[in-house]
């Protein structure tokens, strides 16, 4: 008797897992493009697929299996059976799905009778883009009215001359975001602008676009060919949309590339205000070095580390110690709604939030810590308090997995970050301790008044006259295995 086999069950994209390949899904093809490569695998076809619930996944087909995906046509629903899954990663992720689909030699694509004209837009608000709350590794959908459109520029990119166009997108609440399009995307936008000068109906939808930070400014750009651009996209009433847009004199005009200034305080922002706000999860998952601002609550003091060191003030070329003073070196554990992490504050960064100097807390003592749990009250009182931290996400954090972030400045939780009234105040973020992990050498560039300060964790009574340098950002030391002074519940 012949064995009767039933058709595979159709699985939603949220439920597919890498443990097998015999999945069957029903999906709509939202976008496709060819990714060129000089590697041995050659070119590949890339697809963005969505199921009926709107969940999307990135699909890749290598050139050996192109014949398997001939039926994957833009805008059509198809069944795909037999495929593998691999972890999604990288800086240009077109979907938030944790896996990427790979077409195999036995993959099978067949027609579906499902009819659904939904393009499954996931529009991102301008506020979310500007406040730094989004992970820039994920591509986004954004719509707005182009204004302040510049001229096409031709610039060299990797040895090739490439067209570039800068403009601004504005939404119905007069939020504005800088945009920069490249290649054929720039040409498409410029053509649309020329047509719009006649009929005035001009909305731009960018799908699978990249959030980028250029010269401290958040901007939207196309992510190579994985992005799409639509002018006056279907499903949007262009006239109604334009009627609620603010009347902006820059609309459909060329000229200055400078963004319109926001109404409000005329105080000049300080150097920190150009850096984006990030969550703790953002900095933990960061793939690029950057400066940013994180709001977090201190929930513990890491007592695996001493809370101070002895600094040799303005000691050049390792001469004999002549001027030594205790300095703060606080290791704190902070948290927000997205996660937890460790931060380290040096003396001039820690003292403002403590309200007292390390020298006063030690009361003249020059001995090393005997009981790490015996902390001064001023330090214990930090637990439970919330601050904004100026965070330096360094190469150690990004490339080498260091889990301690150096802090360059602090503010109260509700403080609006504006330019310091003291024009001579240096930006503490640019003065920081760096560790050259590859060579084992330490390059010490101190923070604010700690400039030219040698550091040593050795008590004065045990030093022999030379100023030892302590690697502030070293991750080769013992990592935090016990957390003391937890926040009380």
Automatic annotation (TrEMBL):
Gene Ontology process terms (BP): DNA replication; double-strand break repair via homologous recombination; meiotic cell cycle; nucleotide-excision repair; telomere maintenance via telomerase
InterPro entries reported for this sequence: Euk_RPA1_DBD_C, NA-bd_OB-fold, RFA1B/D_OB_1st
Example of a GO cellular component annotation carried by this entry: DNA replication factor A complex
Domain of life: Eukaryota
Residues in Replication protein A 70 kDa DNA-binding subunit B/D first OB fold domain copies: 12-111
SUPFAM superfamilies xrefs: Nucleic acid-binding proteins
Gene3D superfamilies given in the database record: Nucleic acid-binding proteins
A matching Pfam family: DUF223
Compositionally biased tracts (Polar residues): 436-460
Coiled coil: none
GO terms assigned for molecular function: damaged DNA binding; single-stranded telomeric DNA binding
UniProt-annotated stretches for the region Disordered: 436-461
Protein name (Swiss-Prot/TrEMBL): BnaC04g55400D protein
Protein source organism: Brassica napus (Rape)
Classification of source organism: Eukaryota, Viridiplantae, Streptophyta, Embryophyta, Tracheophyta
Gene name for this UniProt entry: BnaC04g55400D
